[in-house]
# Entry
Amino acid sequence: MPFGNSHNQLKMKFSSEQEFPDLSKHNNHMAKVLTPALYEKLRSKQTPSGFTLDDVIQTGVDNPGHPFIMTVGCVAGDEETYEVFKELLDPVIQDRHGGYKPTDKHKTDLNPSNLKGGDDLDANYVLSSRVRTGRSIRGFCLPPHCSRGERRAVEKLSVEALGALTGDLNGKYYALKNMTEAEQQQLIDDHFLFDKPVSPLLLASGMARDWPDARGIWHNDNKTFLVWVNEEDHLRVISMQKGGNMKEVFTRFCTGLTKIEELFKNKGHAFMWNEHLGYVLTCPSNLGTGLRAGVHVKLPNLSKYRQFEEILKRLRLQKRGTGGVDTAAVGGVFDISNADRLGFSEVELVQMVVDGVKLLTEMEKRLEKGQAIEDLMPAQK
Amino acid sequence: MCSAVFHSLSFITIQWKLMFKHVRNAIMPFGNTHNNFKLNYSVDEEYPDLTKHNNHMAKVLTKEMYGKLRDKQTPTGFTVDDVIQTGVDNPGHPFIMTVGCVAGDEESYEVFKDLLDPVISDRHNGYKATDKHKTDLNFENLKGGDDLDPNYVLSSRVRTGRSIKGYALPPHNSRGERRAVEKLSVEALNSLDGEFKGKYYPLKSMTDAEQEQLIADHFLFDKPVSPLLLAAGMARDWPDARGIWHNENKTFLVWVNEEDHLRVISMQQGGNMKEVFKRFCVGLQRIEEIFKKHNHGFMWNEHLGFILTCPSNLGTGLRGGVHVKLPKLSTHPKFEEILTRLRLQKRGTGGVDTASVGGVFDISNADRIGSSEVEQVQCVVDGVKLMIEMEKKLEKGESIDSMIPAQK
# Structure
């Protein structure tokens, strides 16, 4: 969905009231923040690449939301969006990220030696471990707004950078549009393949334009390090393996990311980052670390315990089904990951997962033996 | 000496180009949507990959043409990337030839004529860039059409679209413009009286009861799901400023802000196409008068006729058709050939791309541009009359070879 209305030069002839979207049935972060007065103030602005307020909010206008799920309802089209439209995005960020203030500073820590433990999560319970994040390449517009030329340039740079990785990270790129049937089947079996988005939240923001041009998947020979190019962000980086050695997963994650970042910097295109928002990504929900670290863990007893939700909340963790967001748990196996993205460093967030899952596993073992777990209840982190 | 002059000339040329590019970027925000950095990339880098595509746009848009058109925009800011986005995102089907491009405003057809004229020619039987289109909405010029056999013809219907001058089209309009189109349309429609007296139902404030009734009447339109339409941007801000108006008799219906500004439909049970067409013409002309009074007449020119969002609907934008029982004729080996010669097309009774049920077909005119409304409805009336004769003959076991028509 290209934004016909956003560069409609006739628009300014209409009053702000005539152009202000009807948000009366809406329930998303954008709708809670965007008043007619704010709309009037911002509607004549644009970023250097031409992204406008209507572009920022289109996905939130087209997708009123759900009574129970609070979606973000706005996206960035380039790095400058977060500055030009800060009066809208700062309150959205604050709402979404636990009160993070416009003056707050975000700390980045990708040093895996700062992680304590994490190499010994009980493999009888923890089936797999995974860390993912996103990165945006400075100098190019983001997926809602980039042109084909920009998207292809991001792909080209990414393939070059990834192609320079060696050792454990030696791998190969599979462009979506040239994939053979055999390659496609293998990527599906490995659960690596991403397809054209179907979510109306994503489609309405314009990020599926020109699909599958310049989209692809890179992974190392060991299938433990995976990069998606030009899906919802310029890059999505994933480190994963079977079992509970989160330390190893996180080490590979940090090493790989740091190497890739250097390669991009050497080509004159660093990652988008600033000391207030950390890593800059398309969706405001992924700012800061953009990191989701999680495990698939068996908690059949604990998940039925009356204070399960409260425990997760106090540990700053969230649960999902093993199919990912909005899926149900199967066989008592849950995806447990960090709830925060911004205001904590990568190491801090993974530490929470490691410490939290260790505790959850203890609780599960107690409950298996019919023992109480009240004394194990954690304080709010 | 010569090479020094040459070098200083090329230096000046480069400086001029850089300066011009800056000025050009400053005054021309872009689409694809409106990324100001796009022109920094070469034509090669920006030209879409159309190798797996099969639509009219992909057949026409060469790299050279793209290079020529990519820095243009219409007065409202619609660019070639906006025109073609739907065709880039929807490669098409090996058997169905989609159009693959849309207009964002009236001027799109002029600014991007290098692309759209050949598309129009391909789609509309060789209609040339210099051809003139004739509009005839005088229902009295229709001969017959009031006596199609109701034992065979179950219902008759005529539809078209209209665009309101001065507003961008659904792929490109702003909320303010869309609401202004709605406001004007509701004013115009509410001033109609007699058999045209009716009521407007905005999509966003419809009651459950109203919605049920409109569904039962087969009047309700919903948010489009076709990726062809969605990729063109016409579903933005749904359901804001969208609605359905119909008269009390439920024989005249107008859709506001769906795929076009207006879609106008006249219909009734049985075979009196003359009455359906009369109501169609009268209603349309009354509405047009009211819009003209507000200095917002319908978009029209003598080359393209009525201007609509999709190039396939130019000219009359008219589809006049009947639901008719042809169980025998439809299985005759020459059925398709007969339809082609009569300049008609068949569809299932669910509309385009549906199957026919119980031998009942939707038969309508195949053409949109290059012939008038009266001429197109005349084709339907005469053609359906002939096909019913053929059906009756086949029922009696008689041959129809002597009745096969010449190519119209």
